[in-house]
């Protein structure tokens, strides 16, 4: 898995994969960006905006599975890969390119 | 991927429903769908034709999908085009308009035709029905009857079955004198027993329908226009209009000519395939396991099954036949029939109530304590419950009379149909009746899809029964039963007992292993917490805990608030505290600048607004165990003062409350448990509306109540038992808790559980040991008690990386272009 870095993007090393527990998410603060980063049980990585568009719930605290995250406040559901909302009228989540480096570090890219 | 072509012959209720189901499975991406319909219209609800005839609905109102709908959904409809032949070798169909259409998959849904008896003088020389004679099947038949009825005076309906009586109702409403000639001894003889037939007969006659029973029609009288009927016994009746309704005949000719196996209907297997590859059949044209069906529910079950099969090649879904039931109004008489109409086995129990003068008749056939059949005439109020018990094969209460009569104490349900559209039904999410109804009309016809789409009922859940009634009202016969309502969690297709059995048999100790073994590896996030709770109950300390399966509250042992902070409620046994404890709480509140300190409804103190990363330090400084005010478990035991100080107290409620809480703190349950102990019948701790409540009564005794509620629902608990000692209170409490842990659905509160099980049954199981499980229940709850660990100990040893972090920072910026 390699990441193609696009012009105008900045890549951050979020540290080793082991910083995230299996099947959970954590919120990262990168400058002014709050980003929820998820590691599924089979070690796929996803990154979305941190706050639920419904009422600002912390998505990183949500339950994750089957490629979806469920917001812990009111159970609004979203697709992790695309950010698309499922069964609700919220706007889609922002998603960000994320990958694992050959050294096993989590790499996340943001627009500069 | 190249799309395959799916050709459907027939645009009646089965064919059209199949298209809808396939589209619901996103089958439009896999298939080019082509439908041939003989009638030149979109599809309509044939069941409602009798309402059109009766004038209670306009023919324009019964269309389900107009022609434009097909276009919108990318479905090609050849309306008014009849398929004349199928070539199963070349895999194509030939239509009357000259179209030749190749198929990859073919579905035959040609339905049925009226079975027209051989009557003398029935046809004109042009092989048309004599003027004034009608079959009752299509919208055109209906229009023809309506036109003719305006100048007719007296009509005879041949056939006293369901449809015949519907036709009679329609013509009666149009002001005609109506007679019904029927060959059997009583009307609706397929559905009703003799007594039921008699009672319906007298109701019909009171309404002005004349019945002529045991009359076999053999001729139409009249020349160029009907003037009467002749019967086999030589008698005649004069009339100027005749409606033939003598049953239906599956349309099998097309299939038969193509070399597809047929008997009475087109033969289909459990996967709805025919005897020829890539050809399927559904609806009234089929014969499955020897049965043909003329009701709508089986046809919908078939459409659902076939749609799933066609869109998911690895689907193993089978159609195993339908248990038919029907609920209708015949000429204004409420009538419901299901299953067998007579006893079949010697052991069948028959319960009958008959009141001919009021036209009321109720009969139950009970087999193995389940409803094998029922007939209800003239009392619609008991029907919904019976239908539900029948459909779900539920065990029956011991008192059968509860089933046949509405108890006088039951409050009359508000009729949802009468509510204005802007009535708010779901008060949590602000969903109106109008929104729910329009959502049902747009295709969300199961409770789950409806609730997902509108969010109605997804808050506190107390409006669920009204949402259900609205769904039934708006969907009518189109209602889809969602099998997942019987599952313990939506993502694993098993009921709770079957799930427990599979978990034990396959030794599944973690949530991910359950998904892998029982849900094809699909980890439904909405099912994780329920499975975690169940596994903990089953395996106790041998449960393999995976933290990601827990809801956030259970990962950090605090209750998440609307701003992402948490509330901290330390355990305060029995609601009794001390100056020292209070001082410590006050110090913590100041040190961490806790925004709000609040006394809770459960007699605790709540520190609200604590950041996640402060939780371990707060717990540490408090030096008190977790109060578990964030999870589905034993929460609190509220107490009144009791005999130690109160001048009315007859029992030491605080001491018992403290003991209860020390014993059962933190035990996981399907939903939260809130308890109370009151020291006298004044019941100041409100024990009667708690999940488990205890009240001291004179003579050193304690009453134990279960299933009370005073939140979103209000219910007075039932007395489980009256005991002599505190030890016995703890014993029976624990026994009930364990039974609830094993038997209740996830998120089912005790009030619903006790209501569902019935207090009598629970007393038998838990007091009289009718199932021989009491000793085991006592043992298992003791194991749960023994394995209790205060989760706030994780302050010193976090269970996962960054368990209590608010936010993490990146290590470095690595590249920029």
Automatic annotation (TrEMBL), chain A:
This is tRNA-(Guanine-N1)-methyltransferase. SUPFAM superfamilies: ISP domain. Keywords: 2Fe-2S, Iron, Iron-sulfur, Metal-binding, Methyltransferase, Transferase. InterPro entries: Rieske_2Fe-2S, Rieske_2Fe-2S_sf. PANTHER family: 3-PHENYLPROPIONATE_CINNAMIC ACID DIOXYGENASE FERREDOXIN SUBUNIT, FERREDOXIN-RELATED. One of its GO terms (molecular function) is 2 iron, 2 sulfur cluster binding. It comes from the Bacteria. GO terms for biological process: methylation. Residues 12-107 form the Rieske domain.
From TrEMBL, chain B:
Gene3D superfamilies: 3.30.390.30, 3.90.480.20, BFD-like [2Fe-2S]-binding domain, FAD/NAD(P)-binding domain, Sulfite Reductase Hemoprotein, domain 1. Pathway: Nitrogen metabolism; nitrate reduction (assimilation). Belongs to the nitrite and sulfite reductase 4Fe-4S domain family. This is Nitrite reductase [NAD(P)H]. InterPro entries: BFD-like_2Fe2S-bd_dom, BFD-like_2Fe2S-bd_dom_sf, FAD/NAD-bd_sf, FAD/NAD-binding_dom, FAD/NAD-linked_Rdtase_dimer_sf, NasD-like, NiRdtase/SiRdtase_haem-b_fer, Nit/Sulf_reduc_fer-like_dom_sf. Keywords: 2Fe-2S, 4Fe-4S, FAD, Flavoprotein, Heme, Iron, Iron-sulfur, Metal-binding, Nitrate assimilation, Oxidoreductase. It comes from Dictyobacter arantiisoli. Residues 561-622 form the Nitrite/Sulfite reductase ferredoxin-like domain.
């Amino acid at each position: 898995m390699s990441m193609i870095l696009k012009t105008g993007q900045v890549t951050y090393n979020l540290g080793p994969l082991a910083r995230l527990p299996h099947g959970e998410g954590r919120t990262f603060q990168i400058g002014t960006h709050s980003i929820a980063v998820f590691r599924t049980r089979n070690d796929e990585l996803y990154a979305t905006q941190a706050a639920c568009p419904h009422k600002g719930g912390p998505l990183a605290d949500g339950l994750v599975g089957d490629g979806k995250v469920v917001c812990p406040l009111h159970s609004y559901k979203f697709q992790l890969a695309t950010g698309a909302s499922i069964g609700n009228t919220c706007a889609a989540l922002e998603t960000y390119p994320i990958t694992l480096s050959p050294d096993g570090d989590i790499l996340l890219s943001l627009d500069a | 991927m190249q799309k395959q072509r799916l050709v459907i012959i027939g645009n009646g209720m089965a064919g059209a429903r199949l298209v809808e189901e396939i589209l619901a499975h996103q089958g439009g991406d896999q298939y080019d769908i082509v439908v041939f319909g003989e009638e030149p219209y979109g599809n309509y609800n044939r069941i409602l034709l009798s309402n059109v005839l009766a004038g209670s609905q306009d023919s324009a109102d019964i269309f389900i999908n107009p022609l434009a709908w097909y276009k919108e959904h990318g479905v090609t409809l050849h309306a008014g085009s009849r398929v004349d032949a199928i070539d199963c070798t070349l895999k194509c169909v030939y239509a009357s308009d000259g179209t030749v259409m190749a198929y990859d998959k073919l579905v035959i849904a040609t339905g049925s035709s009226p079975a027209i008896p051989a009557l003398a003088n029935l046809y004109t020389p042009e092989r048309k029905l004599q003027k004034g004679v009608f079959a009752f099947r299509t919208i055109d038949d209906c229009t023809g009857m309506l036109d003719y009825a305006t100048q007719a005076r007296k009509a005879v309906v041949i056939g006293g079955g369901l449809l015949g009586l519907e036709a009679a109702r329609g013509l009666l409403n149009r002001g005609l004198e109506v007679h019904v000639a029927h060959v059997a001894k009583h009307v609706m003889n397929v559905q009703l027993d003799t007594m039921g037939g008699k009672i319906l007969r007298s109701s019909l006659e009171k309404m002005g329908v004349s019945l002529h029973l045991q009359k076999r029609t053999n001729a139409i009288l009249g020349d160029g226009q009907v003037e009467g009927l002749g019967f086999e016994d030589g008698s005649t009746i004069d009339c100027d209009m005749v409606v033939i309704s003598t049953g239906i005949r599956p349309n099998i000719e097309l299939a038969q000519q193509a070399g597809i196996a047929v008997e009475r209907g087109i033969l289909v297997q459990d996967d709805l395939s025919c005897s020829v590859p890539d050809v399927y059949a559904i609806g009234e044209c089929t014969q499955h396991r020897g049965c043909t069906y003329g009701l709508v529910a089986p046809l919908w079950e078939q459409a659902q099954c076939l749609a799933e099969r066609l869109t998911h090649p690895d689907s193993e879904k089978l159609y195993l036949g339908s248990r038919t039931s029907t609920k209708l109004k015949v000429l204004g008489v409420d009538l419901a029939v299901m299953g067998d109409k007579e006893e079949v086995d010697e052991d069948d129990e028959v319960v009958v109530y008959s009141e001919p003068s009021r036209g009321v008749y109720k009969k139950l056939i009970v087999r193995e304590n389940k409803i094998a059949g029922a007939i209800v005439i003239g009392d619609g109020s008991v029907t919904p419950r019976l239908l539900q018990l029948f459909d779900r094969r539920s065990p029956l209460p011991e008192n059968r009379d509860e089933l046949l009569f509405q108890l006088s104490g039951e409050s009359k349900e508000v009729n949802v149909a009468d509510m204005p559209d802007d009535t708010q039904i779901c008060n949590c999410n602000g969903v109106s009746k109008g929104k729910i109804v329009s959502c049902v009309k747009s295709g969300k016809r199961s409770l789950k899809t409806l609730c997902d789409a509108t969010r109605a009922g997804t808050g506190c859940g107390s409006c669920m029964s009204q949402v259900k009634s609205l769904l039934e009202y708006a969907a009518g016969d189109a209602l889809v039963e969602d099998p997942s309502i019987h599952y313990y969690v939506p993502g694993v297709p098993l009921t709770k007992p079957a799930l427990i059995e599979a978990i034990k048999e396959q030794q599944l100790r973690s949530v991910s292993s359950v998904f892998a073994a029982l849900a094809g590896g699909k980890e439904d996030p909405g099912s994780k917490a329920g499975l975690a709770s169940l596994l903990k109950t089953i395996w106790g300390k041998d449960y393999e805990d995976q933290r990601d399966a827990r809801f956030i509250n259970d990962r950090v042992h605090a209750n998440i608030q609307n701003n992402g902070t948490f509330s901290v409620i330390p355990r305060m046994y029995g609601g009794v505290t001390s100056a020292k404890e209070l001082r410590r709480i006050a110090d913590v509140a100041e040190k961490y600048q806790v925004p709000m300190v609040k006394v809770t409804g459960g007699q605790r103190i709540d520190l609200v607004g604590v950041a996640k990363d402060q939780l371990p330090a707060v717990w540490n400084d408090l030096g008190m165990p977790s109060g578990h005010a964030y999870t589905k478990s034993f929460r609190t035991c509220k107490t009144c003062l009791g005999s130690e100080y109160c001048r009315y107290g007859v029992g030491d409620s605080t001491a018992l409350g403290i003991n209860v809480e020390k014993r059962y703190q933190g035990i996981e349950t399907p939903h939260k448990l809130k308890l109370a102990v009151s020291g006298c019948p004044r019941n100041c701790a409100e024990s009667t509306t708690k999940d488990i409540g205890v009240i001291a009564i004179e003579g050193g005794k304690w009453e134990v109540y279960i299933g009370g509620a005073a939140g979103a629902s209000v219910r007075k608990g039932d007395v489980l038992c009256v005991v002599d000692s505190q030890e016995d209170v703890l014993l029976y409490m624990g026994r009930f808790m364990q039974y609830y842990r094993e038997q209740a659905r996830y998120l089912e509160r005790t009030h619903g559980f006790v209501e569902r099980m019935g207090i009598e049954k629970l007393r038998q199981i838990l007091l009289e040991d009718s199932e021989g499980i009491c000793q085991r229940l006592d043992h298992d709850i003791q194991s749960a008690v023994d394995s209790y660990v205060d989760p706030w100990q994780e302050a010193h040893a976090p269970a996962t990386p960054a368990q209590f972090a608010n936010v993490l920072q990146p290590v470095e910026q690595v590249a920029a272009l």
